[in-house]
Specification:
Number of strands: 0
Strand content: under 5%
Distance between the termini: 34 Å
Largest sheet: none
Number of domains: 1
Length: 390
């Protein structure tokens, strides 16, 4: 119980730290008192989490209030999209998506496309497939908003403690990092929430027949892995725990690994046809390995994730350590860039993409909101000990 509480407060502390970093970065642009203001807002933000202790409202009513806050935030964001057109932004996540699909529909090789800031697309193919409907409506901000909607669905369906939905909503819409992500038409929170969903779905579908569990989860994981290569980290944590707890034996792990790799590879096919030589010369693996930090550092972070085998003891640990290893990986990237560029240029001149810190937030946030999630009930039934149904 004590160890669990420590992990809970570590998770909360990291979320608060990430929010504070975003506050410092953007408040510095508008006031000389940015440090003081950031500290005051951080104190208020921290109190949002502890507010659930003092909530004594009927669950039906508090859920209604939560949905109303979400609706207000979405409405506010739509107004912002009109006030701050995406073409006016000095960030290019929306432009990376539009240039990718412009190239595709012009029969050009998509990974040689360049955004309006000159950057090539680094994410994997399924990332762009998810964004395609929003490319057609010419507003990628709606894509960003689906991160909030998906996270609300996750904490509504997979949590049981009253008031957690309300607190979760407040901590997302009241954060500087999610407001920044929405305005900039970024979608890191959405991508990470999708991976969180796949981890939770994996653990909650253990009562399926093994062959269906392997097939269905292999397809889902293969698709979501084809968004950003950094998500190999939570999946490593998940499968190492599955081996350790004997949910899967080595043969089953290889089977689901094959399904994952086949689905992952299939997502590349529409974009590689007629461009195989170009794919060998330029692809998201090359772009990502050279953009963030040296390949050796990236590989070291992935290998470090293997230590999770020795420290995860439950599926809830999978969530915590997935968030922790993602946070450590991005911290290494930030520290490397600060070392190369200097602190002011890296942070305040936006040479470092701090939004990558958001990768770990859905995992940590869900961890601190779910005291007794449904997969704990599965463990109570000894599904983990007895293995999946044959």
């Amino acid at each position: 119980m004590f160890v669990s509480s420590i992990k809970k407060y570590i998770s909360l502390l990291i979320i608060i730290l990430i929010n504070f970093i975003f506050l410092i970065k953007y408040a510095e642009r508008i006031t000389d008192y940015y440090i003081l203001i950031s500290i005051l807002i951080t104190i208020i933000y921290t109190l949002l989490f502890f507010s659930k202790r003092y909530i004594h409202i009927n669950e039906k009513h508090i859920n209604f209030i939560s949905y109303f806050i979400v609706l207000l935030f979405i409405s506010f964001s739509v107004v912002l999209f009109h006030k701050i057109p995406q073409v006016s932004l000095n960030v290019d996540r929306y432009s990376v998506i539009t240039s990718f699909w412009d190239s595709y529909f012009n029969s050009d090789y998509v990974y040689l496309a360049k955004s309006h800031l000159g950057n090539m697309p680094g994410p994997m193919p399924f990332y762009f497939i998810l964004a395609l409907p929003f490319y057609f409506v010419h507003e990628l901000g709606y894509f960003s908003l689906f991160g909030l909607i998906l996270f609300v669905i996750i904490i509504k369906y997979y949590k049981i403690e009253r008031g957690n939905l309300f607190v979760g909503v407040l901590m997302v819409v009241g954060s500087a990092f999610y407001l920044s992500e929405t305005i900039s038409r970024s979608n890191i929170f959405l991508n990470s929430s999708l991976v969180l969903f796949s981890v939770l779905f994996f653990s909650n579908s253990l009562n399926m027949r093994k062959k269906y569990h392997i097939l269905l989860n292999g397809v889902i994981i293969g698709l979501f892995l084809s968004t950003r290569n950094v998500f190999v980290i939570p999946y490593i944590v998940l499968f190492l725990h599955s081996l350790k707890s004997k949910i899967y034996n080595l043969t089953d792990t290889i089977k689901i690994g094959i399904v994952v790799l086949l689905i992952f590879a299939t997502t590349f096919i529409p974009f590689v046809i007629n461009h195989f030589q170009s794919f060998k010369e330029m692809n998201p693996f090359i772009i990502q390995s050279s953009f963030l930090m040296p390949q050796s550092l990236s590989l070291t972070c992935v290998l470090f994730t293997l230590t999770s085998f020795f420290i995860t003891k439950s599926f809830k640990d999978v969530l915590f350590f997935s968030g922790l290893y993602l946070f450590i990986t991005i911290l290494v990237y930030v520290l490397y860039q600060v070392y190369i560029l200097g602190f002011h240029q890296a942070i305040f001149q936006s040479k470092v993409d701090l939004s990558y810190f958001i990768l770990c937030v859905p995992f940590f946030l869900y961890y601190i909101l779910s005291d007794k999630p449904k997969f704990d009930k599965l463990e109570d039934k000894q599904l983990i000990i007895n293995g999946i149904k044959k």
